[in-house]
Design goal:
Elements: E1 3-7, H1 23-27, H2 30-41, E2 48-55, E3 67-77, E4 82-91, H3 99-104, H4 107-128, E5 144-147, E6 152-157, H5 178-202, H6 206-209, H7 212-218, H8 223-241, H9 248-258, H10 262-272
Antiparallel strand pairs: 1-2, 2-3, 3-4, 4-6, 5-6
Length: 279
Protein backbone atom coordinates (compact mmCIF):
# COMPACT_ATOMS: atom_id res chain seq x y z
CA UNK A 1 0.00 0.00 0.00
CA UNK A 2 0.93 3.62 -0.44
CA UNK A 3 2.87 4.86 2.56
CA UNK A 4 4.28 8.11 3.92
CA UNK A 5 6.82 8.47 6.72
CA UNK A 6 7.76 11.81 8.20
CA UNK A 7 9.87 13.06 11.06
CA UNK A 8 8.49 16.30 12.50
CA UNK A 9 11.17 17.39 14.92
CA UNK A 10 11.89 20.52 12.89
CA UNK A 11 8.36 21.26 11.74
CA UNK A 12 6.68 24.15 13.53
CA UNK A 13 4.62 26.18 11.07
CA UNK A 14 0.84 25.78 11.45
CA UNK A 15 -0.69 25.09 8.02
CA UNK A 16 -3.99 26.33 6.67
CA UNK A 17 -6.88 23.89 6.76
CA UNK A 18 -7.05 22.20 3.38
CA UNK A 19 -9.49 19.94 1.58
CA UNK A 20 -7.65 17.40 -0.57
CA UNK A 21 -8.79 16.55 -4.09
CA UNK A 22 -8.02 12.84 -3.71
CA UNK A 23 -6.88 10.26 -1.18
CA UNK A 24 -3.39 9.98 -2.75
CA UNK A 25 -2.97 13.73 -2.34
CA UNK A 26 -4.12 13.51 1.27
CA UNK A 27 -1.81 10.70 2.36
CA UNK A 28 1.16 12.39 0.69
CA UNK A 29 0.51 15.77 2.26
CA UNK A 30 2.27 16.36 5.57
CA UNK A 31 0.19 19.49 6.17
CA UNK A 32 -3.17 17.83 5.61
CA UNK A 33 -2.37 14.82 7.82
CA UNK A 34 -1.07 17.09 10.59
CA UNK A 35 -4.19 19.22 10.41
CA UNK A 36 -6.42 16.15 10.66
CA UNK A 37 -4.49 14.78 13.64
CA UNK A 38 -4.84 18.14 15.36
CA UNK A 39 -8.54 18.60 14.60
CA UNK A 40 -9.61 15.05 15.44
CA UNK A 41 -7.33 14.04 18.31
CA UNK A 42 -5.74 17.26 19.53
CA UNK A 43 -2.20 16.27 18.54
CA UNK A 44 -0.37 19.55 18.02
CA UNK A 45 2.51 19.78 15.60
CA UNK A 46 4.95 20.23 18.47
CA UNK A 47 3.66 17.04 20.12
CA UNK A 48 4.24 14.79 17.09
CA UNK A 49 7.66 13.19 16.69
CA UNK A 50 6.82 11.24 13.55
CA UNK A 51 3.93 9.52 11.80
CA UNK A 52 3.31 6.88 9.16
CA UNK A 53 0.36 6.89 6.76
CA UNK A 54 -0.77 3.89 4.72
CA UNK A 55 -3.76 3.17 2.52
CA UNK A 56 -5.51 -0.14 2.02
CA UNK A 57 -5.34 -1.78 -1.40
CA UNK A 58 -7.15 0.30 -4.03
CA UNK A 59 -9.17 -2.77 -5.04
CA UNK A 60 -10.47 -3.16 -1.49
CA UNK A 61 -13.32 -0.70 -1.96
CA UNK A 62 -14.62 1.66 -4.64
CA UNK A 63 -16.94 4.61 -4.14
CA UNK A 64 -19.72 5.31 -6.64
CA UNK A 65 -19.90 9.00 -5.75
CA UNK A 66 -16.54 9.66 -4.14
CA UNK A 67 -12.88 8.78 -3.91
CA UNK A 68 -13.12 6.40 -0.94
CA UNK A 69 -10.64 4.27 0.93
CA UNK A 70 -9.26 2.96 4.18
CA UNK A 71 -6.38 4.90 5.71
CA UNK A 72 -4.24 4.02 8.74
CA UNK A 73 -2.19 6.65 10.56
CA UNK A 74 0.38 5.58 13.14
CA UNK A 75 1.67 8.39 15.33
CA UNK A 76 4.61 8.58 17.71
CA UNK A 77 4.47 11.56 20.07
CA UNK A 78 7.39 13.29 21.76
CA UNK A 79 6.25 12.00 25.16
CA UNK A 80 6.81 8.41 23.98
CA UNK A 81 3.18 7.63 23.14
CA UNK A 82 2.25 5.36 20.21
CA UNK A 83 -1.14 5.74 18.55
CA UNK A 84 -2.82 3.93 15.64
CA UNK A 85 -5.85 5.51 13.97
CA UNK A 86 -7.97 3.76 11.35
CA UNK A 87 -10.11 5.91 9.06
CA UNK A 88 -12.58 5.43 6.27
CA UNK A 89 -12.14 8.52 4.11
CA UNK A 90 -14.51 9.91 1.47
CA UNK A 91 -13.32 12.74 -0.76
CA UNK A 92 -15.23 14.64 -3.41
CA UNK A 93 -12.96 14.17 -6.42
CA UNK A 94 -12.30 16.78 -9.08
CA UNK A 95 -12.72 14.20 -11.85
CA UNK A 96 -15.25 11.39 -11.42
CA UNK A 97 -17.80 9.69 -13.64
CA UNK A 98 -20.62 10.87 -11.35
CA UNK A 99 -19.34 14.41 -10.69
CA UNK A 100 -22.47 16.01 -12.16
CA UNK A 101 -24.69 14.01 -9.79
CA UNK A 102 -22.54 14.86 -6.79
CA UNK A 103 -22.59 18.58 -7.57
CA UNK A 104 -26.24 18.84 -8.63
CA UNK A 105 -27.62 17.19 -5.51
CA UNK A 106 -25.01 18.41 -2.99
CA UNK A 107 -24.30 14.81 -2.00
CA UNK A 108 -21.42 15.61 0.33
CA UNK A 109 -23.12 18.58 1.98
CA UNK A 110 -26.22 16.47 2.63
CA UNK A 111 -24.18 13.66 4.18
CA UNK A 112 -22.23 16.07 6.36
CA UNK A 113 -25.45 17.68 7.57
CA UNK A 114 -26.90 14.27 8.45
CA UNK A 115 -23.91 13.32 10.61
CA UNK A 116 -23.42 16.76 12.16
CA UNK A 117 -27.00 17.99 12.66
CA UNK A 118 -29.79 15.52 11.87
CA UNK A 119 -28.43 12.44 13.68
CA UNK A 120 -27.58 14.45 16.84
CA UNK A 121 -31.09 15.98 16.81
CA UNK A 122 -32.65 12.50 16.61
CA UNK A 123 -30.43 11.22 19.44
CA UNK A 124 -31.34 14.25 21.58
CA UNK A 125 -35.03 13.47 21.02
CA UNK A 126 -34.52 9.86 22.13
CA UNK A 127 -32.73 11.06 25.26
CA UNK A 128 -35.49 13.55 25.98
CA UNK A 129 -38.04 10.74 25.56
CA UNK A 130 -36.08 8.50 27.98
CA UNK A 131 -35.61 5.74 25.41
CA UNK A 132 -31.97 6.34 24.46
CA UNK A 133 -30.93 3.09 26.15
CA UNK A 134 -33.66 1.13 24.36
CA UNK A 135 -33.14 2.50 20.85
CA UNK A 136 -29.56 2.67 19.65
CA UNK A 137 -28.70 3.97 16.21
CA UNK A 138 -26.18 2.10 14.10
CA UNK A 139 -24.56 5.30 12.87
CA UNK A 140 -20.78 5.75 12.89
CA UNK A 141 -19.28 8.85 14.47
CA UNK A 142 -18.14 11.46 11.98
CA UNK A 143 -14.56 12.23 12.99
CA UNK A 144 -14.06 15.17 10.64
CA UNK A 145 -15.68 16.92 7.70
CA UNK A 146 -14.97 20.01 5.67
CA UNK A 147 -16.05 21.42 2.34
CA UNK A 148 -15.27 24.38 0.17
CA UNK A 149 -16.54 25.50 -3.22
CA UNK A 150 -15.78 22.35 -5.20
CA UNK A 151 -14.15 19.95 -2.74
CA UNK A 152 -15.19 18.07 0.37
CA UNK A 153 -13.86 15.44 2.77
CA UNK A 154 -15.53 13.18 5.32
CA UNK A 155 -13.54 11.05 7.77
CA UNK A 156 -15.29 8.18 9.56
CA UNK A 157 -13.97 5.34 11.74
CA UNK A 158 -12.93 2.27 9.76
CA UNK A 159 -15.38 -0.29 11.12
CA UNK A 160 -13.26 -3.16 9.84
CA UNK A 161 -10.95 -2.50 12.80
CA UNK A 162 -13.94 -2.64 15.15
CA UNK A 163 -14.69 -6.22 14.14
CA UNK A 164 -17.21 -5.67 11.36
CA UNK A 165 -16.87 -7.50 8.06
CA UNK A 166 -18.82 -8.60 5.03
CA UNK A 167 -19.01 -12.13 3.66
CA UNK A 168 -17.70 -13.00 0.23
CA UNK A 169 -19.06 -15.59 -2.19
CA UNK A 170 -17.07 -18.25 -4.04
CA UNK A 171 -15.97 -15.62 -6.59
CA UNK A 172 -14.67 -13.27 -3.92
CA UNK A 173 -17.54 -10.79 -4.31
CA UNK A 174 -19.08 -9.20 -1.25
CA UNK A 175 -22.71 -9.87 -0.43
CA UNK A 176 -25.18 -9.38 2.43
CA UNK A 177 -26.46 -12.48 4.16
CA UNK A 178 -30.17 -12.61 4.95
CA UNK A 179 -29.37 -11.92 8.60
CA UNK A 180 -27.25 -8.86 7.84
CA UNK A 181 -29.69 -7.54 5.24
CA UNK A 182 -32.40 -7.72 7.89
CA UNK A 183 -30.16 -5.86 10.36
CA UNK A 184 -29.54 -3.15 7.74
CA UNK A 185 -33.26 -2.64 7.15
CA UNK A 186 -33.94 -2.58 10.90
CA UNK A 187 -31.20 0.04 11.37
CA UNK A 188 -32.77 2.25 8.71
CA UNK A 189 -36.21 1.71 10.23
CA UNK A 190 -35.03 3.00 13.61
CA UNK A 191 -33.88 6.26 12.03
CA UNK A 192 -37.09 6.70 10.04
CA UNK A 193 -39.32 5.84 12.99
CA UNK A 194 -37.49 8.26 15.28
CA UNK A 195 -37.68 11.11 12.76
CA UNK A 196 -41.42 10.45 12.30
CA UNK A 197 -42.03 10.40 16.06
CA UNK A 198 -40.03 13.62 16.48
CA UNK A 199 -42.06 15.42 13.83
CA UNK A 200 -45.38 14.18 15.21
CA UNK A 201 -44.60 15.01 18.85
CA UNK A 202 -42.98 18.39 18.21
CA UNK A 203 -45.25 19.26 15.28
CA UNK A 204 -42.34 20.19 13.04
CA UNK A 205 -41.39 19.48 9.44
CA UNK A 206 -37.80 18.27 9.28
CA UNK A 207 -37.65 18.86 5.54
CA UNK A 208 -38.13 22.58 6.22
CA UNK A 209 -35.59 22.78 9.02
CA UNK A 210 -33.19 20.49 7.11
CA UNK A 211 -33.68 21.06 3.35
CA UNK A 212 -30.93 18.55 2.66
CA UNK A 213 -33.43 15.77 3.42
CA UNK A 214 -35.56 16.76 0.46
CA UNK A 215 -32.49 17.32 -1.70
CA UNK A 216 -31.22 13.84 -0.85
CA UNK A 217 -34.61 12.37 -1.79
CA UNK A 218 -34.66 14.26 -5.07
CA UNK A 219 -31.36 12.57 -5.90
CA UNK A 220 -33.35 9.41 -6.69
CA UNK A 221 -35.36 11.15 -9.42
CA UNK A 222 -32.23 11.31 -11.58
CA UNK A 223 -32.24 8.87 -14.50
CA UNK A 224 -28.88 7.36 -13.51
CA UNK A 225 -30.33 6.44 -10.13
CA UNK A 226 -33.77 5.24 -11.26
CA UNK A 227 -32.05 2.89 -13.73
CA UNK A 228 -30.23 1.34 -10.76
CA UNK A 229 -33.47 1.08 -8.81
CA UNK A 230 -35.07 -0.76 -11.72
CA UNK A 231 -32.15 -3.17 -11.81
CA UNK A 232 -32.56 -3.78 -8.06
CA UNK A 233 -36.27 -4.37 -8.61
CA UNK A 234 -35.58 -6.97 -11.32
CA UNK A 235 -33.09 -8.80 -9.11
CA UNK A 236 -35.59 -8.82 -6.24
CA UNK A 237 -38.31 -10.18 -8.52
CA UNK A 238 -36.04 -13.04 -9.53
CA UNK A 239 -35.53 -13.91 -5.86
CA UNK A 240 -39.27 -13.71 -5.24
CA UNK A 241 -39.92 -16.21 -8.02
CA UNK A 242 -37.79 -18.74 -6.16
CA UNK A 243 -39.75 -18.39 -2.92
CA UNK A 244 -42.06 -21.21 -1.86
CA UNK A 245 -44.32 -19.04 0.29
CA UNK A 246 -48.05 -19.29 -0.44
CA UNK A 247 -48.49 -15.58 -1.19
CA UNK A 248 -45.40 -15.27 -3.40
CA UNK A 249 -47.28 -14.98 -6.69
CA UNK A 250 -49.51 -12.20 -5.36
CA UNK A 251 -46.59 -10.36 -3.78
CA UNK A 252 -44.60 -10.59 -7.01
CA UNK A 253 -47.49 -9.24 -9.05
CA UNK A 254 -48.12 -6.33 -6.68
CA UNK A 255 -44.43 -5.44 -6.47
CA UNK A 256 -43.94 -5.59 -10.24
CA UNK A 257 -46.99 -3.44 -10.90
CA UNK A 258 -46.11 -0.88 -8.23
CA UNK A 259 -42.68 -0.24 -9.76
CA UNK A 260 -43.33 -1.09 -13.38
CA UNK A 261 -41.03 1.45 -15.03
CA UNK A 262 -38.37 4.10 -14.43
CA UNK A 263 -40.96 6.81 -15.04
CA UNK A 264 -43.14 5.33 -12.31
CA UNK A 265 -40.19 5.35 -9.90
CA UNK A 266 -39.39 8.97 -10.76
CA UNK A 267 -42.95 10.03 -10.08
CA UNK A 268 -43.02 8.17 -6.77
CA UNK A 269 -39.79 9.87 -5.69
CA UNK A 270 -41.07 13.27 -6.79
CA UNK A 271 -44.28 12.79 -4.81
CA UNK A 272 -42.26 12.02 -1.68
CA UNK A 273 -39.48 14.56 -2.07
CA UNK A 274 -40.59 17.66 -3.92
CA UNK A 275 -38.38 20.65 -3.24
CA UNK A 276 -40.33 23.75 -2.36
CA UNK A 277 -38.56 25.71 -5.10
CA UNK A 278 -39.89 23.26 -7.66
CA UNK A 279 -43.50 23.25 -6.45
Amino acid sequence: PASLRMGLSGYRRTPRTRVPSSIPQMINSEKIICELLKEIYGHTYQDIKKFDVSRGASSDIAGHLSDSGRVTVKVETVDGGDHAYHWFVKIMPLHHQNNDLVAKFDVFRNEIEFYSKIAPALKAFLKESNVLNEIEFDIPEMLYAQEDENRAIIVLPDLIHEGYKQERDENGNRYLSTEKATLAVESLAKVHATSYALQMKKKIDMEKSHPSIAEAGAFWTNSDMTSRLILMKEVFCEFLKESNQLDTALTLERFSNAFESEETLKELCKERYVLEDDS
